[in-house]
Write a structure and sequence with these properties.
By secondary structure, this protein is mainly alpha-helical. It has one domain. The protein has 9 helices and 6 strands; from the N terminus they run αααββββαααββααα. The protein has helices at residues 3-7, 40-51, 57-82, 115-120, 131-143, 150-161, 178-181, 186-194, 206-226, and strands at residues 84-86, 93-95, 104-106, 112-114, 164-167, 172-176. It has a two-stranded antiparallel sheet. A hairpin with a 5-residue loop joins strand 3 and strand 4. Helix 3 crosses helix 5 (131-143) and helix 3 (57-82) crosses helix 6. It is globular and about 60 Å long. The structure holds zinc ion.
């Protein structure tokens, strides 16, 4: 069994309910798919090479655009939960309100699906976060394709991977956003970031960011202990 496929949101389509209001049994009821989290081994390799001062353009773009697609999926999924749903057939934005999962969304292109079936594809896939994370991901999505040098791209990847979710009441970091971007459980992802390779050839700025991350992860770990 290929884990990538399971993580990729390729859920088998469910049978439409012909009697549901507004649905069309002969129409398009496809489910949205979400870009998967990026495999650890690619990121580990990226940092190993960077530590030796080796610039691998292809690997930087492979990881960078994997994160770009994942970040975009995250933003799209969060928007859907807030009420702006992207039609998976034509890309149009549909507006919905409330939490009624039987509510059927209908697009002018002929696509329709219940909000419950749509939401099911988002749940338990590490696709939710609050405004600071959306801002971080949005900034990466905008800036990565614009960055003109591999070093600039490496810095953007590094900045993204070392971001945090923040608790709005106390302004303290709660968990790394890497859980939304890299495959694995939270503890695995934290250990993974803790053991990335740095060296004399590392892109300038990477070690400073790691030091900042080391301070923040102390708060995040204490948050994890105290959380219910
Ligand atoms: Zn459509």
């Amino acid at each position: 069994m290929n884990n990538d496929l399971r993580d990729g949101g390729h859920v088998p389509p469910t049978e439409p309910t012909p009697t549901a209001e507004g649905s069309n049994p002969t129409g398009d009821h496809r489910l949205p798919t979400w870009a998967p989290r990026v495999p650890k081994h690619k990121i580990r390799r990226l940092y190993e090479l960077d530590a030796q001062g080796i610039i691998d353009d292809d690997l930087i773009d492979d990881v960078g655009y994997g994160l770009w697609a994942r970040g975009k999926a995250f933003i799209t999924a969060c928007a859907a939960v807030r009420g702006e749903v992207v039609c998976p057939a034509c890309g149009a934005i549909l507006h919905r309100a409330g939490h009624d999962k039987t509510q059927v969304m209908v697009c002018g292109c002929g696509w329709s699906l219940s909000w419950g079936d749509y939401f099911e594809t988002i749940q338990r896939k590490q696709l939710s976060g609050a405004e600071p994370v959306l801002a971080l991901f949005g900034s990466y999505v905008d800036r990565f394709p614009e960055a003109t040098t591999p070093r600039a791209r490496m810095l953007l990847i590094d900045e993204l991977l070392h971001g945090f979710h923040w608790y709005y009441k106390t302004g303290t970091p709660t968990r790394p956003v890497a859980i939304n971007l890299i495959e694995g459980r939270l503890s695995d992802v934290i250990d993974f970031l803790d053991t990335l390779t740095y060296g004399s050839g590392s892109t300038p700025g990477l070690r400073d960011r790691k030091a900042e991350w080391d301070e923040r992860i102390v708060y995040a770990r204490s948050w994890g202990r105290d959380a219910p």
